[in-house]
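seq:
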Amino acid sequence: MKTIRASIIGFGSVGRGVARTLIQKEDEIKKAGFEVKVVGIADSSSGIVDPDGLDLEEILKHKDSTGRVSEERLSGIEIIENIEHELVIETTPSDIQTGGVGLENMRMAFSKGRDVITSNKGPLALRFSELINYAKANGSKFLYEATVGGAMPILNLVRETLAGNEIKSIQGILNGTCNYIISRMMEEKAPYEQMLAEAQELGIAETDPTYDVEGIDTASKLVIIANSVFGMDVNYHDVDVTGITKITPEALMLAHDEGYAVRLIGEVKDGTLKASPRLVPLDHPLAVGGTLNVAYIQTDLAGDITVSGLGAGSIETASAILSDIMSLYRER
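struct:
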């Protein structure tokens, strides 16, 4: 049985979710003809390595009790550069301004010929073509299903199940936080600020919700869809973006009386990218409530395909990362 040596760079909620998933699904991975041995882990302030494989259970306990993976000041990029392994699982937080540490981690991984699987949207929203070309030039594989829909498959669905179809357009609710806030505003006939506060109390919205409510998160995912599915060469700055902060309960009720829901919709169609609140017929597949994500894919052969699922959450996102790992390394 072949062994894939991996590092987990970024050990927040998603990185820890990956570790728990690798523990939980160890037998299923082995049935696919390989095993994953994690030889390095780094968070924002510490790192730990063991060429023979780390004890993930112990590191999770240490992280929970101390907030660090170890007492050693070892960075992710040092692990990527200096520890021999095949796969970098990059789960650091997204930075849409510069690409952040995630961009540097990916560049270093490709320079070493390592494969990369990531949930980090920022680098792909800004430097998609550069990263794809760099990976190819160095013989690295690069998968990123988790950057778009969390547990909801879009990229793999189009790449594999819908292979041969012409994808005419993709519309979607790609941010569960926004969907929750708008849904609750309608249900409670309450203002945006009140429902944002509720979402924050429940842990659905971040303390700083800007990326979500201003449409930045949705726009970043659209860029990845546009480049990956439609073969475009765009970045975040090419998206027409409007957030949800100006929506009023009165507008939502008026739309409902006319048979419509208001949803933050991201769309790639006819070479344009747009993320904005849109009127959606109440009986349309995109008119879902709560924190669900939905993608509505129009094709020439298969017709209209709708897929939905949880777009956030550590285990849900780790599910997409595991899917990419299985896709990359399973024996065929």
